[in-house]
Amino acid sequence: MLVARSDDGDATLWSLDTLNLIHTFGGLSGITSTIAIAENSALITVISVNVKNDAAAMEFRIAEGLFVNQSVVSLLDVVNHTTIATFNVPYQIHTMTFLPDNSLLVAQSIDGVFLSLNLTNKHITKGLMLEHLIQLPNTPVWHGVPVWHCQDKGQHYFSALFPQHKSPVPVLWIPRDFHVSRWSQGASMIALGCRDGRVILLRLPAISADGHFVTV
């Protein structure tokens, strides 16, 4: 299944097998920044940013990695073709993932803040429990500890959540003169894109089937 978003606020579902249109969700607000699909393809989230005055200026800010103040998360039911819920999130969302059981949506803001969106009671909670964090498919793990990108007032760094700590702990600071503007992460690698065109790759050890750490 392919999800496409048009400038007029519609999100369309397409079949990759037949290349036919499945359904159109209309009336979604703002400029789309991220789309997430549940593992069973039954649920979709479309994350947008509000456009109050100048859409072109907002698109430029997103392209440059600049902050916006709020995101709108639309939860869509693929089977019944309905909008289940809409969340107004006071952060710019960088990535969003469903937990495997579809009980929570886990969002990470562009500055590294984790949010839990409860799909049952529709509540938003700041922070994330360790058992939820390690279930996310693209969370890098360093020696068994999840790590992720954060930034504060232009300072980029990485935090880790150790079992003995209730709050994340900074573990790696990125020099400011790298001027990081983009970042992405996978299970064993983190990529940082700099404004001058450089790309920095941080490779993390993975755990093999016999429990040993290996580099992949």
Break the fold down into its secondary structure elements and pairings.
Layout: E1 2-5, E2 11-14, E3 21-25, E4 31-37, E5 43-49, H1 55-63, E6 71-77, E7 82-89, E8 93-98, E9 104-109, E10 114-118, E11 124-126, H2 130-133, E12 141-142, E13 145-152, E14 155-160, E15 169-173, E16 180-185, E17 189-194, E18 199-203, E19 205-207, E20 213-215
Antiparallel strand pairs: 1-2, 2-3, 4-5, 5-6, 6-7, 8-9, 9-10, 10-11, 12-13, 13-14, 14-15, 16-17, 17-18, 19-20
InterPro entries: WD40/YVTN_repeat-like_dom_sf, WD40_repeat_dom_sf
Jot down its keywords.
single chain, 216 residues, mainly beta, Methylamine Dehydrogenase, Chain H, Thrombin, subunit H, 2 domains, 2 helices, 49% strand
Please give the largest β-sheet.
4 strands, antiparallel
How many strand segments? 20
Distance between the termini: 30 Å
* Low-pLDDT segments: 53-67, 208-216
Overall description:
The protein has 216 residues and is mainly beta. It has helices spanning 55-63, 130-133, and strands at residues 2-5, 11-14, 21-25, 31-37, 43-49, 71-77, 82-89, 93-98, 104-109, 114-118, 124-126, 141-142, 145-152, 155-160, 169-173, 180-185, 189-194, 199-203, 205-207, 213-215. A hairpin with a 2-residue loop joins strand 12 and strand 13 (145-152).
